[in-house]
Hints:
Strand content: 5-15%
Largest sheet: 2 strands, antiparallel
CATH architecture: Orthogonal Bundle
Number of domains: 1
Amino acid sequence: MTCAHCEEMKAEIEYLRSELGLSMAAHRVQKIRDLLPQGSSRGVIAKLLICLYQAKGKPLTRGQIFDAVPPYSGEDDDRGYNYISMLVCKAREHVGFDSIKTIWGGGYALTPKGMAWVARAVGDEP
């Protein structure tokens, strides 16, 4: 028997794999989520960081991130234009302001510092 949260996360992961070609293993998202301070957005910030990490330092557009990162709750999708900017700002507060770079007209990408932080968090570091 699984909980509703686990089923929701499995559905999100399957969507990301099939529609976007991304693989967000639930245990990787959970490892990052556990490192972030308590709050309603920490699961979404963890997914943002995994999404950027899987891009391997290449920029992802706001639209790509918007498609890959779900809203706070699975019920309503009331995200506005500034949703991604707000998530990036919160991620920078927790991981480091120099961990995510803004590529004007191109989106966002993890810096080497950000890549190292996520790699340590998910256990990818050799």
